[in-house]
Amino acid sequence: MKKEENNMEWLFDEEVSDSGDLTEKQKRIVKAAVEMFQEKGFSASSTSEIARRAGVAEGTIFRHYRTKKDLLLAIVTPVMSHLVAPFIVKDLDKVLKQDYEHYEDFLKAVVRNRQTFIRKHLPIVKILIQEIPFHEELRTQFIEHIAKDLFDRFGKVVVHFQEKGELIEIPSSSAIRLSLTAILGFFLARYIMVPDRDWDDEKEIELTVQFILHGLKAR
Amino acid sequence: MKKEENNMEWLFDEEVSDSGDLTEKQKRIVKAAVEMFQEKGFSASSTSEIARRAGVAEGTIFRHYRTKKDLLLAIVTPVMSHLVAPFIVKDLDKVLKQDYEHYEDFLKAVVRNRQTFIRKHLPIVKILIQEIPFHEELRTQFIEHIAKDLFDRFGKVVVHFQEKGELIEIPSSSAIRLSLTAILGFFLARYIMVPDRDWDDEKEIELTVQFILHGLKAR
Amino acid sequence: MKKEENNMEWLFDEEVSDSGDLTEKQKRIVKAAVEMFQEKGFSASSTSEIARRAGVAEGTIFRHYRTKKDLLLAIVTPVMSHLVAPFIVKDLDKVLKQDYEHYEDFLKAVVRNRQTFIRKHLPIVKILIQEIPFHEELRTQFIEHIAKDLFDRFGKVVVHFQEKGELIEIPSSSAIRLSLTAILGFFLARYIMVPDRDWDDEKEIELTVQFILHGLKAR
Amino acid sequence: MKKEENNMEWLFDEEVSDSGDLTEKQKRIVKAAVEMFQEKGFSASSTSEIARRAGVAEGTIFRHYRTKKDLLLAIVTPVMSHLVAPFIVKDLDKVLKQDYEHYEDFLKAVVRNRQTFIRKHLPIVKILIQEIPFHEELRTQFIEHIAKDLFDRFGKVVVHFQEKGELIEIPSSSAIRLSLTAILGFFLARYIMVPDRDWDDEKEIELTVQFILHGLKAR
DNA sequence: TATGAATGAGCGTTCATTCAT
DNA sequence: CATGAATGAACGCTCATTCAT
């Protein structure tokens, strides 16, 4: 416990720099755009309505973002790169050895940490998921980050605990998939499909983590 | 095994009646629309391009479908209702007792059956997933079918095997979620995210089912 | 009185041959078209809605009327030519001498006779008035009939009574205008602007005729 | 005579504010629209041709007028309200007593004043007359202004001169109708039906007014 | 004779983007 | 930096008309 609390900083969410250098109007544009993209999707959202909701002139949007698509990317790419940021850490092996004795510790740290991130950036995460199929740039970035970084790192973690004899010897890609889908399935249910239910997060996370652990336990 | 093969008919896919009563041109319209909706999403697809791809006049589309949205719904709703059709069966308990001695048998039957369905209707399933957030009617239908029917039925199955002592005593909603996300996660990886990989379906299904079973096994 | 009743036949309305040779469907088309043209005007009425209201296929309209405009003309021209029909009579002078001792008798005969006609064909008369400005053919026909025939005949009548010393010696065109606008003004009020008022037709006609007579009386 | 010239200002036409606040392009749009609406009627006029005639992009029309109908109303409603403006005057009785000794003076003032108005706004007045039957809003406004205001005021005038013993004791509604239709009939002939004839306006107005006066003179 | 599927031009309107102010 | 008038292409959709059945 202490360990987690002490050393999990590498997992922590360095502020997504949405707001640092943005002007007042720019912030309102981004806010309005996020709202609209989430409600109707990117291509069904019109710049004129974004401008109206933001309380700026239509031209102002194009002063800050060359095209409507630029606006989407400006909103979505920083969140995308931070989604997997925690895994981009040097000396992962060292971290693993020092901080996570068991796969359980690792999983819980990941779930908790990503939960705060998703909770915070939920609207943009939704937009990201919706728009990825339709925008080459997003897909490329996503593959770059997720496939390369996240899978590589997560793969190392899995192999690490397989070698320790904790996890069943199945292809790491399958183990990752099974771990991730259980976690993402929780987030999906928790934040997207039935966000209004009266959730006991602690219990559900425990359930989910135990499910993964038993499912992947070496037999 | 024999049982499955003999009695799984209730799970089988009665033909989705896309094509029975449709005229030649109508079929071409639907085909072109499915292509476009998948490529660019509903609202970024123009009726003029759908018409061009279908090789019909634009007016012809509107003779058959009053609005562009009607076209979407005509494509997507029959698939949606068939997605969960197998679970809409009377005497589920009887079926369970006769055909599925173990949760494993049930899971495998479901996976295999839905796999053929998804494989066949993949483009439309993708469109469905993409467009659900933006169309009230789809959302309503989805909730009606999925939340009500599927969850009820699946819940009964889970409870059935919990009572038999096979499955761990956790809330059935959690057990359903964990089962489903593992299965859907497989489909997602298999057909949407990395369809081009060289998949060994039998092995992956076995892996996935065993993962669920161990994850939910009564302890 | 007797005279009027006996000899006014020349003023009477030979049946407008709308319906003689028309098929059942044709009648329904005409009926629906008249309704729509009156409600929304010719160019805002669509053949598809006319067909729907008539309960026939859209093609059927074009089997009977080559174009939408032909349909309008087929409806409107027979009524137009009958509007002024009563005045197209040979030996008008003879008729005048025999039947109408005073301008008053003539005016009353005209008003009563045209009232029954207008009452009967009101919807088509309305359409006629509405569409005349926009259709060359209608305008031509109208000028042909009204300007030439009606004004010539009416002019003769006026001159006849001026020569008898009954009417003031003003240009006959002015006398016609003043007579006609008083009569038409009554019809306009009676049938178009305030048809729902509780009209005492006899009294209003008497008032109107006396107004004209006093207005035009030789001084 | 002097009186009329001195005090008729209340009857005068405060400028219809068509042009004050309109941009250059807007004026061209309105001009082109008025032309087209008059030539072909509202619903047969296309926004694309209006734009072409106005020398602006089609989109520009919709920047200033949300719909084509808005454009119509923007053109037609100010003229409609000014049509009867002269009658909307306080202390009508006082005005009558001071300025119009006889019904004749009143009639002449009205005719002359409305003649300049109609002459000036003729195209729009024509459009107004044509479109009133097809647009609920116009009809409502028209009834509001004409039925309420104009008839009330005109009624008071008629009653005033009936009480003075100048006019015959018939229902004021009939007297108004007969007066108005004679005047409007003149305008109709003068400006719409045969505008090209060589009119002697003074003579025709005199004829018309005398016709009304003799027609309505107390007997 | 009657149908209604099919057409493509044209409809009113919205779009993302530009640019002079 | 911000505006909003202006653009013209493209939008979803309707139109009058044709024609094979």
Task: Provide structural commentary.
4 copies of one chain form a homotetramer. Chain A is an all-alpha fold. The first copy, chain A, has a domain at 2-9 and 75-216: Tetracycline Repressor, domain 2 (Orthogonal Bundle), CATH 1.10.357. Helices cover 72% and strands 0% of the residues of chain A. Chain A is elongated.
Determine the fraction of residues in helical runs of chain A and give it as a percent range.
over 70%
Low-pLDDT parts of chain A are 1-8
Oligomer: homotetramer
Specify the overall morphology of chain A.
elongated
Strand content of chain A: under 5%
Largest sheet of chain A: none
Total of helices of chain A = 10
Judging by the overall fold, what is the CATH architecture of the domain at 2-9 and 75-216 in chain A? Orthogonal Bundle
| The CATH C-level class name of the domain at 2-9 and 75-216 in chain A | Mainly Alpha
Class per helix and strand makeup of chain A: mainly alpha
State the order of secondary-structure elements of chain A, H for helix, E for strand. Answer: HHHHHHHHHH
CATH topology of the domain at 2-9 and 75-216 in chain A: Tetracycline Repressor, domain 2
Give me the count of strands of chain A.
0
Query: How widely separated are the two ends of chain A?
Result: 27 Å
